[in-house]
């Protein structure tokens, strides 16, 4: 099924072809039957080799036959001397070469070659490399060949530096060689590893080998930047260099940690936020109150989530409700060898302990922050390219990335402008870019909010199509989402455990599934949205303190008896605006 | 005049020719052209393409389900009386080895007869599509056969005698365990480690560690993790976002499998379904995707090809339909993006599993 192009031929040509195929088919079936009867009888001789050769030449995907052939070869090893065995395997390699000429993408053939290379008494590895070179010169994207090359390099201990030079040559002659860039990404960390002190901390989940370029030492990284810049200045429209560049600029994953602990006397409840979704139910979290371990049940923000960035537990009644008492609480996460303390002072109803997103440089878009001078110079280069190629989407994307790494708030205006251009030049993905832009606007709002040290979050009138980073909003009391393009308040919204007021007028909101069990929520303002059914409002009934609900300008208010049904659904909402 | 002709050609191109596709799959199940002879060993996968294709087209009424079901069961490698071949059980691709036809009783001892992980996977899917209750599947034998295929690094061989090993067969294994509702068939943790190890510098997945990212392997990785219920546990939010980006950038009109390669109909499913599983498929351009898929439609014999002006084949015909289904083509049934069968067949599986658990 490998892309056979339609070709018109005459009736006579068709007939000739048919006859030839029929002849081949007869030979094939005869050989196959002979082969299997030999195999059944456990025969492993030269004739069997010959038969399987015939069949495999026309059908290299007949896996069972390769296996049979391997058995024959192994048996022959026991009855031949070493020079004969060597000759046998050399013939095998020749045979394989002819198979590969016909079908350079057969799993069976490449696998068998790899097997032979392990069995033959002597292997001419230089020749194997040269076979790969030839194959790649015909199709530099043949991943079977690349995979085999990696095996040859490993088995024959070709120095990594030499292979790096090989990629230099390929990339030098054709920058648009994605497979070469890929190979380079695997070689660099081997040749120029970063010092062991900067290895990821123990206890973190096993990294995937290639994802982090922080495993390449600085000096080499700078050289790579230059190489890559040459590439994308030469052909700005080729993805290869840009993806590689993105990888170079990347930085390590953060350590997993507890990012926030919040305690509330009113509900006698503790909420814990993590740096990533976790599964805390299976005894992973331990609570210690005033020096005493407490047995508690942890639950995620919504029953449907087994993994959640925020987990909640109720303390035994009477534990902390007396405002005259001071308490010390510690949350332990033994699996990650980390913990968080939080003190609840006399006279205070609530308390929290949180790492700010600013300090954590949470939104520095994954880039290496310690080298801001380098990033600055990279930004300059990309801006230069942008002057020459103002509509190049890769350039725009990379500039956005660099600006967010250097100064997300300072570059906010330019970032928005670039997003606008990006949506025009790559309109096929404009919805994706809107989403990305929404994310960055939310990140900037979080940073501004922290700077102002308030618990009010306002992203009004920002063309928001989606909400994210809700785990960073655990502490906020007021949220203003009005005049955007939001359609859903999804389940993750229930992470906003401190929320008192939700303002969301002038959106296109259809569902409120995330307005669920918010213990402090008092006001919900939804004027001019798309709430169409009573069912959509059901989650609100789980919020015990809700007393004001504005539903004006929503289709649900048009249905008969809307008011009485709503009063029935939400009896404690004293003020209902329809 | 010429303008009118090309306009009507264009309109014709955009029309989805349901009936032709039904007939294409019917022919696929009757006789295949000689050039498919090399696929004899994997015949069951071709049947799966045809059956699932007809299911997506809501046209299963054109076949004799009972006949099909019997044939599929004849491909089951059954345990011998002394149960000595359990590690070789599963389903074969076809009868090419020459085992006598049998759908029940004990297996026949044969040194070279064994299941193939992709045949077991497509065999089970095909039975479900045909409405079978899997009661004649020897589940324990299949699972034993599956366990025998997993290597220490977490990947799988296709057959117990050995073959290449990579992420494709992890996907088959995960699907088998999911369908049989029994994860004892594999070491899930090891498989996850192999999958993570296959994540490449550009955040696509390769066939294994150090290998180039590819839309097909990315599908295998993400779909496997979803079937295991471990997507969020195995990959961080940042990694997931980067994977989304790599996948979204595959759309050129239709989708390509790798950067700088031409778009190909089948990736409208492999990459499309991955995006669907990652919740961002709605950010792709449906119109361009549809236009490309339909440009590979064969107006005469039905089916889809990988590229325009190429001959259609069952794989691209099936995946082209799935690609169209993902974007909501009206006459097509919805496809379960991780298991790659219709939601209807998936519902049938769910009900079966409920009865098994009840027991």
Automatic annotation (TrEMBL), chain A:
Annotated region (Disordered), positions in chain: 1-22, 194-213
| Catalytic activities | geranylgeranyl diphosphate + L-cysteinyl-[protein] = S-geranylgeranyl-L-cysteinyl-[protein] + diphosphate
Main EC class the enzyme belongs to: transferase
* Keyword match Transcription regulation: no
Which InterPro entries is this protein grouped with? Answer: LRR_dom_sf, Prenyl_trans_a, RabGGT_asu_insert-dom_sf, RabGGT_asu_insert-domain
Residue span, Rab geranylgeranyltransferase alpha subunit insert-domain domain: 258-357
Q: Name one GO cellular component term.
A: Rab-protein geranylgeranyltransferase complex
Keywords, in A-Z order? Leucine-rich repeat, Phosphoprotein, Prenyltransferase, Repeat, Transferase
Gene Ontology annotations of biological process type: prenylation
Under Enzyme Commission nomenclature, its number is: 2.5.1.60
Instruction: Cite a single GO MF annotation.
Output: zinc ion binding
PROSITE patterns per UniProt:
PFTA (PS51147)
Question: So what does this one do?
Answer: Catalyzes the transfer of a geranylgeranyl moiety from geranylgeranyl diphosphate to both cysteines of Rab proteins with the C-terminal sequence -XXCC, -XCXC and -CCXX, such as RAB1A, RAB3A, RAB5A and RAB7A.
Q: Which family does it belong to?
A: Belongs to the protein prenyltransferase subunit alpha family.
Q: What is this protein called?
A: Geranylgeranyl transferase type-2 subunit alpha
Taxonomic lineage: Eukaryota, Metazoa, Chordata, Craniata, Vertebrata
Automatic annotation (TrEMBL), chain B:
Known EC number: 2.5.1.59
Instruction: Please name the Gene3D superfamilies in this protein's record.
Output: 1.50.10.20
SUPFAM superfamilies assigned? Terpenoid cyclases/Protein prenyltransferases
Catalysed transformations (reactions): geranylgeranyl diphosphate + L-cysteinyl-[protein] = S-geranylgeranyl-L-cysteinyl-[protein] + diphosphate
Which of UniProt's keywords are assigned here?
Magnesium, Metal-binding, Prenyltransferase, Repeat, Transferase, Zinc
- Pfam families referenced in this protein's UniProt entry, alphabetically: Prenyltrans
Q: Does the keyword Metal-binding apply?
A: yes
Locate the Prenyltransferase alpha-alpha toroid domain: which residues?
16-341
Q: What is this protein called?
A: Geranylgeranyl transferase type-1 subunit beta
Q: Provide the organism lineage as a comma list.
A: Eukaryota, Metazoa, Chordata, Craniata, Vertebrata
């Amino acid at each position: 099924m490998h892309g056979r192009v339609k070709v018109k031929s005459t009736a006579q040509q068709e007939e000739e072809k048919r006859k030839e195929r029929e002849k081949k088919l007869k030979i094939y079936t005869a050989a196959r039957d002979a082969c299997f009867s030999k195999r059944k009888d456990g025969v492993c001789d030269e004739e069997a080799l010959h038969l399987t050769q015939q069949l495999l030449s026309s059908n290299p995907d007949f896996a069972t036959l390769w296996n049979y052939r391997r058995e024959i070869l192994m048996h022959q090893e026991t009855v031949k001397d070493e020079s004969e065995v060597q000759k046998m395997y050399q013939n095998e390699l020749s045979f394989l070469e002819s198979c590969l000429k016909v079908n350079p993408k057969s799993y069976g053939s490449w696998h068998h070659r790899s097997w032979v290379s392990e069995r033959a008494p002597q292997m001419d590895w230089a020749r194997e490399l040269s076979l790969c070179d030839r194959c790649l010169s015909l199709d530099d994207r043949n991943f079977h060949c690349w995979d085999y090359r990696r095996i040859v390099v490993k088995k024959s201990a070709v120095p990594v530096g030499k292979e790096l030079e090989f990629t230099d040559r390929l990339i030098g002659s054709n920058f648009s060689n994605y497979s070469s860039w890929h190979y380079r990404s695997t070689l660099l960390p081997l040749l120029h590893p970063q010092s062991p002190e900067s290895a990821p901390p123990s206890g973190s989940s096993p990294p995937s080998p290639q994802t982090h370029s922080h495993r390449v030492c600085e000096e080499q990284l700078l050289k790579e930047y230059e190489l890559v810049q040459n590439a994308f200045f030469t052909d700005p429209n080729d993805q290869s260099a840009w993806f590689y560049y993105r990888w170079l600029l990347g930085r390590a994953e953060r350590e997993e940690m507890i990012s926030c602990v919040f305690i509330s006397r009113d509900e006698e409840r503790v909420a814990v936020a993590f740096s990533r979704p976790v599964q805390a139910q299976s005894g992973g979290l331990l609570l210690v109150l005033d020096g005493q371990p407490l047995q508690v049940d942890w639950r995620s923000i919504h029953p449907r989530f087994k993994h959640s960035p925020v987990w909640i537990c109720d303390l035994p009644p009477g534990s902390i409700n007396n405002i005259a008492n001071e308490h010390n609480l510690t949350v332990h996460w033994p699996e990650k060898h980390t913990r968080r303390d939080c003190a609840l002072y006399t006279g205070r109803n609530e308390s929290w302990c949180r790492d700010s997103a600013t300090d954590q440089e949470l939104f520095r878009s994954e880039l290496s922050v310690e080298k801001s001078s380098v990033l600055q110079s990279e930004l300059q280069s990309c801006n230069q390219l942008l002057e020459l190629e103002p509509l190049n989407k890769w350039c725009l994307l990379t500039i956005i990335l660099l600006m967010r790494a250097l100064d997300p708030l300072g570059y906010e205006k330019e970032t928005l402008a670039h997003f606008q251009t990006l949506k025009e030049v790559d309109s096929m993905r404009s919805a994706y870019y809107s989403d990305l832009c929404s994310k960055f606007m939310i990140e900037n709002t979080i940073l501004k909010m922290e700077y102002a040290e308030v618990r009010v979050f306002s992203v009004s009138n920002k063309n928001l199509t989606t909400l994210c980073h809700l785990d960073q909003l655990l502490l906020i009391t007021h949220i203003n989402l009005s005049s955007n393009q939001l359609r859903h308040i999804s389940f993750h919204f229930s992470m906003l455990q401190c929320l008192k007021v939700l303002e969301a007028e002038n959106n296109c909101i259809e569902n409120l599934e995330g307005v669920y069990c918010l213990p402090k929520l008092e006001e919900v303002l939804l004027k001019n949205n798309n709430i169409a059914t009573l069912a959509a409002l059901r989650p609100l009934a789980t919020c015990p303190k809700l007393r004001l609900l504005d539903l004006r300008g929503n289709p649900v208010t048009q249905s008969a008896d809307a008011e009485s049904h709503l009063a029935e659904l939400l009896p404690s909402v004293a003020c209902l605006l329809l | 005049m010429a303008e009118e002709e090309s306009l009507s050609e264009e309109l014709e191109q955009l029309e989805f020719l349901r009936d032709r596709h039904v007939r294409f799959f019917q022919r696929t199940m009757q006789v295949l052209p000689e050039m498919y002879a090399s696929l004899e060993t994997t015949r069951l996968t071709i049947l799966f393409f045809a059956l699932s294709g007809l299911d997506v087209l809501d046209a299963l009424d054109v076949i004799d389900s009972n006949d099909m079901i019997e044939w599929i069961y004849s491909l089951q490698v059954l345990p011998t009386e002394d149960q000595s071949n359990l590690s070789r059980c599963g389903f074969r691709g076809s009868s090419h080895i020459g085992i006598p036809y049998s759908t029940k009783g004990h297996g026949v001892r044969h040194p070279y007869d064994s299941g193939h992980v992709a045949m077991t996977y497509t065999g089970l899917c095909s039975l479900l599509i045909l409405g079978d209750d899997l009661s004649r599947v020897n589940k324990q034998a299949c699972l034993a056969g599956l366990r025998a295929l997993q290597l220490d690094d977490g990947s799988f061989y296709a057959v117990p005698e050995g073959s290449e090993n990579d992420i494709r067969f992890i996907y088959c294994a995960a699907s088998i365990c999911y369908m049989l509702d029994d994860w004892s068939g594999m070491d899930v943790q090891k498989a996850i480690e192999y999958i993570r190890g296959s994540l490449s510098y550009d955040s696509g997945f390769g066939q294994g560690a150090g290998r180039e990212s590819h839309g097909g392997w990315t599908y295998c990785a993400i779909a496997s993790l979803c079937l295991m219920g471990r997507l969020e546990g195995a990959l961080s939010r940042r990694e997931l976002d980067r994977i989304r980006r790599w996948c979204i950038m595959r759309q050129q009109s239709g989708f390509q499998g790798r950067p700088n390669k031409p778009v190909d109909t089948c990736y409208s499913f492999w990459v499309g379904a991955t995006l669907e599983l990652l919740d961002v498929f709605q950010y792709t351009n449906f119109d361009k995707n549809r236009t490309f898929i339909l440009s590979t439609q064969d107006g005469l014999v039905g089916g889809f090809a990988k590229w325009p002006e190429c001959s259609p084949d069952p794989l691209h015909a099936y995946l082209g339909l799935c690609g169209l289904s993902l974007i909501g083509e009206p006459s097509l049934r919805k496809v379960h993006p991780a298991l790659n069968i219709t939601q209807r067949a998936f519902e049938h599986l769910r009900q079966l599993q409920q009865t098994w658990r009840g027991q």
